[in-house]
Amino acid sequence: MPSDEGTHYIAGIDEAGYSPLLGPLMITSVLFKTPQPEEPLWDSLRESVSRRACRSGRVQINDSKKVFTPAAGLGRLERGVLAALAASGIARPERFDELLKTICHHFGDPVAAQPWYENLSMPLPLVAEAEDISKAAADLAATMSKKGVALLDICSNPVHPPRLNRLIQQRGNKATVLFEETVVLIRRLLHLYGRKGIRIVADKQGMRQYYEPLLCQAFPMSRVDIVSESESLSEYRIDAGEGRMELCFAEKADVHHLPVALASMVSKYVREVFMSAFNGYWQERVPGLKPTSGYPKDARRFLAEVRAAWESAGINRGEVIRSR
Description:
The longest helix has 26 residues, at 258-283. The protein has a single domain, classed as 2-Layer Sandwich (Nucleotidyltransferase, domain 5), CATH 3.30.420. It has a 7-stranded mixed beta sheet with strand order 5-2-1-6-9-8-7, with helices on both faces. A two-stranded parallel ribbon has the order 3-4. Helix 3 crosses helix 5 (130-147) and helix 3 packs across helix 10. The protein is built from 12 helices and 9 strands. Helix content is 43%, strand content 19%.
């Protein structure tokens, strides 16, 4: 969707942590400005960005599952996220709490006073080399400037278990909660950039194909037009008075759209640092405790091992474990 003369605003939205029993569900939006929307950003930025890990120094941006694995560690994911933030001029956080204040402040307290998050002032980067990140950020900034591309905005919506459980109880299921919390980010983008015209791409949510009824409910004073609805792509135009947008829910969007991939990486990175703090809290209280990623099978092992410490501390189950 064209906006200002020769300028196009393209956003991506993706989540991390939908399936685990422990830790937050993170949903992130990323917004780019580009003069050539028909050219994939991976191509526009190929001088300093790569889908694959490589030794050339380029920043790897891809679906977070391709950038991060427990075996490979946090380094590549952290490098990509912090380099993108620095290259954009959005932030050069020296501590994790500074990062949260930059990208999560729209949602109030990003930690909801949970005891394992009382001290989130861990210095960044945690694993990657600061000098390497600075070099990668400088290269990426130079390429974006050369191509007329700008990374304008990164915003994350952290949904920790206490709030997630309340929302699931109110809405009846987790899929509805994910959609509604994604819409919060969509509304924000529409408010900030709708007058310019914006295209937003999000990953398909589960097996859902028809989003029009949900969008009409989410934007009751707006006109919602169906462009196409299929198993692979559901696309809509939304006219909200002075704001307008194209909204697409695409299968494997984080593989095909760089803004979605970067949103996936930011969500995953923030969630992993939260989980590091969560694990550290319990490891101080249970000697020899192996950390958990929070996914169901391992989460049950972890919870069994911390049960005594948990009960002695009088911590409410709903503060720790997701209901679904």
